[in-house]
């Protein structure tokens, strides 16, 4: 191989599979691509190979390399994901609505976006790349809470700012957010808006994430200026259907008036759509015995009378039945039979009434002794039959009412002992010498 400043001389030793073996003077052996050999070169051919350094090409390639490195740094090394900025949107007694701008991930990939309440993971945010708000419910009234968002990406973890908020009390009505549907009475609608404005509440025509109640008087949505046909049914409005899907309470405008009157959040149980709203309590009704219409003092049962029925007639039953009832009832609670002239005349003609008179003539002290003695009874006593029972006489205003005196209707005291003639028991001293009276056989009296 003859060397020169421009080239080196080699002998082609072997050609195999696209590679050539070149041999130098000092037994140098190199592999050389056969495609770079001159055309027609075979085994044993002598070739000259010149080698030169290309400085210009080196500079160009070096510039291309660093340009590429700068682009990679600008794309992946300068911009990083941004931490979410949490903001408070709405507060009620039992819920809080929070919002934030769209998350910035730069070139990183999202792993998770979670809500934290009081330092504990609450729930992941659904559709975190497009969702920018969330409503947290089932909170306690008048309670302080802290909320935070945690963004996790392939480039690291980025926590948001901490929000500290207290839920409203029941007397704070500023958290009410109403969406109005179809309210048929325009005056009622304007009054409801005035009441909301006075309570520092808000309303809208579209359902939003912070909407607390949907107010309407009918689920149908009738366009303005058109009347629906009677033959075709009216379909519910779009906002009404959305309220049902989102489980938003649907109430009548009377609920707003009740909250404004009570100055607090009122239960919606009595104001649901279709229910009859409660009305103010009416005046106290008159007694059942008082007539509703005024009566003249001269008319029967006038203003001075509280009776709604005519008075019952006095007892005009035969004195015999009264005497039998008097012997059964406590004598001290029974009025005398001959208290009226009619009773006196009847007792004079009735032989049985004479026996009752003798029984009434017994002194009170003797009667009390007889009642205090246990185990004695009047053997000649008989229960009154329904025929001889006292009845209530007929009056011109009402038909006769027959009342049967039965043992279950009156109180039964122990019957007093009586002698055979006058029905008076002997003094206690006389009885002590003669011994106790024999009662004889016991007789069961059906009651």
From TrEMBL:
Residues 168-273 form the BRCT domain. It comes from the Eukaryota. GO terms for biological process: conjugation with cellular fusion; Golgi to plasma membrane transport. Residues 314-332 have a biased composition (Polar residues). Residues 277-447 are annotated as: Disordered. GO terms for molecular function: protein dimerization activity. PROSITE patterns: BRCT, FN3. Residues 80-172 form the Fibronectin type-III domain. Pfam families: BRCT, CHS5_N, fn3_2. One of its GO terms (cellular component) is exomer complex. This is Chitin biosynthesis protein CHS5. It comes from Favolaschia claudopus. The lineage of its organism: Eukaryota, Fungi, Dikarya, Basidiomycota, Agaricomycotina.
